[in-house]
Amino acid sequence: MSHWIASNNDLKNLCDQLAGSELLALDTEFIRTDTYYPKIALIQLSDGKDCWLIDVLAIDHFSALKGLIESPNNRIIFHACAEDLEVLDHSLNIQPTGIFDTQIAAGIANVGYSMGYARLVGALLDIELDKQETRSNWLARPLTQRQIDYAVIDVLHLHTLHDMLSEMLDKQRRMAWFEEEIKTLFGLVTQRKSNQNYFVKFKGAWRLDAQSLVTLKVLCLWRESTAKTKNVPKSRIAKDSVLMEVARQMPEYKHQLHSIRDWHPVAIKRYGEALLNQVKESYDAPPISANEVPQPLSKMMSHVFKLIRQALIEVASEQNIPQEFLCNKRELEAILRSVENGELVLPNRITQGWREPWVKPVIEAELKKLNE
Questions:
Q1: C-beta neighbour count of 9 within 10 angstroms
Q2: How many CB atoms neighbour CB 220 within 10 A?
Q3: Is the pLDDT of residue 278 over 80?
Q4: Phi/psi at 333 (nearest 5 deg)?
Q5: Cα–Cα nearest to 281, from 222, 236, 239, 326
Q6: Is it the case that residue 149 has pLDDT exceeding 70?
Q7: pLDDT of 118 above 80
Q8: Which string of DSSP letters, residue by residue, matches 254-318?
Q9: How many angstroms separate the CA atoms of 293 and 303, rounded?
Q10: What pLDDT is recorded for position 194?
Q11: Nearest to 303 by CA among 253, 340, 351, 260
């Protein structure tokens, strides 16, 4: 059964009612198509029996909800919670700490890596879900019955999934692994907020000369700041491809900007002068170390990369866990780049915790062969 919560008083009463609940399921619906920051529209909350749809557009006092969700006595069940945590933090200043993420649990229990909610429900409960309302307008009021049904379904099965996955993790003696992953999750969410080094994600950035690389970083920071201030998507100001081309060409005059592909004349008119000022000021910006920008691995290291990946696939098969949880592609590339730069650097999650007995020896064994 679902209940619509659309007043401060109703929300306060609900939170008082659920204060003794130790396990709550939560999901959010939001829109982020034309803004930098997500616009939260709805919160779904369930105690495993009933579901409450909290109309955040009709409520302006969320202290009771904050107290409920942040209570150390409560654990909140999410599925793939990174975006939900971001939305709750930005929109309502709510930061859950007691979390059970069913997507992470399913990976650790070897049900499947990075499975979507509908796929996981299908795999464990043999129920097919209709996800057609995913991208509907959640800011519209009133919501359609299809939207309401969809919103309820998003938390309807989370308690059952929690119970099944908890039992699997206990039987496999992997609950400690899961708790370790949840702690890591908070660090990843924090990293999502930081865009200081966004420029290193640009494909081919390593090909830029030293000054163009500095300019690219300056342009990325300027675009980020401008997008936040105006609350518009970054692409509305300039796409990544535009910033990359500007960094290559280092234009001085506005008419030069019209030769850059994918930059609309309206955007040039609105942001062109500011961008050119950033290009000019970037000449005085601090230099960037060559090690900051990922370069393609050498042929030898690419070969080692393949050998390590294959060895980890075999380990994953033996341990019945998705290989991606042991060491992902980006991590392994970074490790091998550190070797090329003269010193092996392993991330903490490989030198500590449950991965260490399997991942570290594999990497060290293959690297040792290089010196034989």
A1: 10
A2: 25
A3: yes
A4: -60, -40
A5: 222
A6: yes
A7: yes
A8: HHHHTTSTT--HHHHHHHHHHHHHHHHHGGGSPP--GGGS--PPPHHHHHHHHHHHHHHHHHHHH
A9: 21
A10: 66
A11: 340
Q: Tokens standing for 341?
A: 């730069």
Instruction: For residue 192, name the pLDDT band (cuts at 50, 70, 90).
Output: low
- pLDDT score recorded for residue 185: 86
- Output 372 or 183, whichever has higher pLDDT: 183
Dig out the tokens for 152 from the structure.
Answer: 């309820």
Half-sphere exposure of 248 (CA within 13 A, CB side): 15
Distance CA 17, CA 35 (A): 35
DSSP 144: P
Alpha carbons within 13 angstroms on the beta-carbon side of residue 88 total 25
Contact 154, 117 (CB under 8 A): yes
Contact between residue 304 and residue 336 where contact means Cβ atoms under 8 Å apart: yes
Q: Residue 75 corresponds to which amino acid?
A: R
DSSP single-letter state for residue 199? G
List the beta bridge partners of residue 52. 3, 45
pLDDT exceeds cutoff 80 at 241: yes
Check residue 314 and give its pLDDT.
Answer: 96
- The whole model's pTM is what? 0.92
> Which residues does 238 contact at the CB level (< 8 Å), separation at least 6?
219, 223, 246, 263, 267, 271, 275
